[in-house]
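TASK: fixed-backbone design
INPUT:
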């Protein structure tokens, strides 16, 4: 019999974080704890309004599993019990943590993976005026990889300001679906000249077909257009890379499958995150081993992290200790 506890938590962001869809000063997460035989497994998710999710709705979806969990629902059956998304992510990751604790092993061992190593993560610069983004870039010029939130007109000035203030950093830009095809066609060559190495989700997910016929001088990465393995087929010819986020895949189980399928189809892989605590990042660190671009800076954007959080040394993130997860 597996017991369930689910709760919401609010974590303050350091300052204000803005993207093309809006800004916020805190992140709302949902934490799941599964208990069995005296062991507790934890998972965390971030409900995302862009995908029709709310904290209340995600909690209700998780609560709907209570009787089935008590009756023996396991991680494999969970994959059909809930759709890909935040709710399944929290439960799936809690199952992995619980299974590891009950087995006296680490999650990577249960998943048949090699022991994880420290990774270099991107650091995200919030959307702002070019001058402000330039100042933020100067403060973080020591970081090897910066990710810039952009929004449309004025973006070239934003990237120029960042490049001028962080001349040695690799740059990726994330439009969060805010560009038009005409803007992409105009911006991409200029961004290539500025040394940008990747463009993330330039066009709206429902209007990204033009990418198949546009020249892509920089690799283009699908984020909002890519959720789980079932979405891969429609991305062929439009994108060069995909961004795997566990809140989209519905957990570590599907994230590992998505990475395998994407690589078989020839896509480069990025592993990203929502703004969340180290409990959300820990499973993603396993998926991110050896991928092209890593964006697991969520805790760095918070005013504080939870106890036993991941250890960050500059832009280097170390794998989780068992006290946190896995």
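OUTPUT:
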């Amino acid at each position: 019999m597996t017991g369930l506890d689910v709760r919401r938590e609010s974590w303050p962001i350091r300052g204000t974080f803005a993207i093309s869809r809006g800004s916020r000063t805190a992140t709302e997460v949902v934490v799941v704890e599964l208990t069995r035989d005296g062991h507790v497994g934890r998972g965390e998710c971030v409900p995302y309004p862009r995908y029709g999710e709310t904290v209340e709705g995600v909690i209700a979806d998780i609560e709907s599993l209570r009787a089935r969990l008590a009756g023996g629902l396991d991680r494999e059956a969970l994959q059909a019990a809930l759709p890909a998304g935040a709710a399944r992510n929290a439960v799936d990751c809690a199952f992995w943590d619980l299974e590891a604790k009950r087995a006296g092993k680490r999650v990577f061992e249960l998943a048949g993976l090699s022991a994880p190593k420290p990774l270099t993560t991107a650091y995200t610069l919030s959307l702002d005026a070019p001058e402000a983004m330039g100042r933020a870039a100067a403060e973080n010029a020591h970081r090897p990889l910066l990710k810039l939130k952009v929004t449309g007109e004025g973006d070239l000035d934003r990237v120029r300001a960042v490049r001028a203030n962080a001349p040695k950093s690799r740059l990726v830009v994330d439009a969060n679906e805010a560009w038009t095809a005409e803007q992409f066609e105009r911006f991409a060559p200029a961004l290539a000249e500025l040394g940008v190495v990747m463009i993330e989700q330039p066009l709206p997910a429902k209007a990204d077909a033009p990418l198949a016929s546009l020249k892509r001088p920089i690799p283009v990465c699908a984020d909002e257009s890519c959720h789980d393995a079932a979405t891969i087929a429609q991305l062929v010819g439009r994108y060069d890379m995909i961004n795997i986020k566990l809140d989209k895949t519905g957990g570590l189980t599907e994230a590992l499958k998505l990475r395998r399928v994407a690589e078989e189809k020839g896509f480069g892989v990025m592993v990203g995150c929502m703004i969340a605590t180290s409990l959300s990042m820990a499973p993603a660190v396993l998926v991110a081993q050896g991928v092209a671009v890593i964006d697991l800076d969520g805790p760095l954007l918070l005013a504080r992290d939870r106890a036993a959080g991941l250890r960050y040394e500059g832009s280097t993130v170390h794998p989780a200790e068992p006290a946190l997860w896995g």
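COMMENT: The CA atoms of residues 44 and 279 lie 6 Å apart.
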